[in-house]
Amino acid sequence: MNAAPVLVSACLLGEKVRYDGRDARAENPILARWLAQGRVVAFCPELAGGLGVPRPAAEIQGLAVLDRAGNDLTPAFRRGAQAALDAARRAGARVAVLKDGSPSCGSRSVYDGSFSGTRRAGEGLTTALLREAGLAVFSECEIEQADAWLMDLEGQTEDEWTE
């Protein structure tokens, strides 16, 4: 059986693509196993949408994504979300593990738009589009749940899964 692909935020894989030029590497044995199995499709929607590194921090305010100066970055975030969906479809991915808190990738929370470091429940533009298209989206804190979801998708037992 072919291993089901998983779309993963590039920053979680150690790529220095975050707004501040850093990564958010997730050291997780499940992620390492997925990499070894060739499941991982690395992707950064913000880069794909045309934003550079480094770039101003951005937060969701209402229906828009703005930087601290009030510049509307929504079109770039929408382009990146569509590019992520296109990449997932090309790869055949039905699940994604994305960086929580991001205005693109947040799946449980996003920053509240005040640039004060305060989070609120919500999802980023990429997560919303992927979910609307039927993909299961998990945060980097939910890799175990994503792995269980994949195991169920592939009809594997836990012993078969970790071989």
Task: Tally the structural domains.
Answer: 1
Approximate helicity band: 25-40%
Distance between the termini: 13 Å
Task: Give a count of the beta strands, DSSP E runs of length 2 or more.
Answer: 8
Mean pLDDT: 95
Provide the gyration radius in Å.
Answer: 16 Å
Structural class: alpha/beta
The global form is elongated
Number of distinct helices: 6
**What strand line-up does the widest sheet have?**
2-1-5-8
* Largest sheet entry: 4 strands, parallel
What is the quaternary state of this protein? single chain
Which regions are unreliable across 5 or more consecutive residues at pLDDT < 50? none
Topology as H/E string?
EHEHEEHEEEHEHH
Account of the protein in words:
The chain is an alpha/beta fold. The chain has one domain. The strands form three sheets. It has a four-stranded parallel beta sheet, sandwiched between helices. It has a two-stranded antiparallel sheet with strand order 3-4. The longest helix is centred in the middle third of the chain and has 18 residues.
Helices and strands in order, then pairings?
Layout: E1 6-9, H1 29-37, E2 40-43, H2 45-48, E3 58-61, E4 64-67, H3 74-91, E5 95-98, E6 109-111, E7 119-121, H4 125-132, E8 136-139, H5 143-154, H6 158-161
Parallel strand pairs: 1-2, 1-5, 5-8
Antiparallel strand pairs: 3-4, 6-7
Helix pairs in contact: 3-4
TL;DR of this structure?
With 163 residues, the protein is an alpha/beta fold. The protein has helices spanning 29-37, 45-48, 74-91, 125-132, 143-154, 158-161, and strands at 6-9, 40-43, 58-61, 64-67, 95-98, 109-111, 119-121, 136-139.
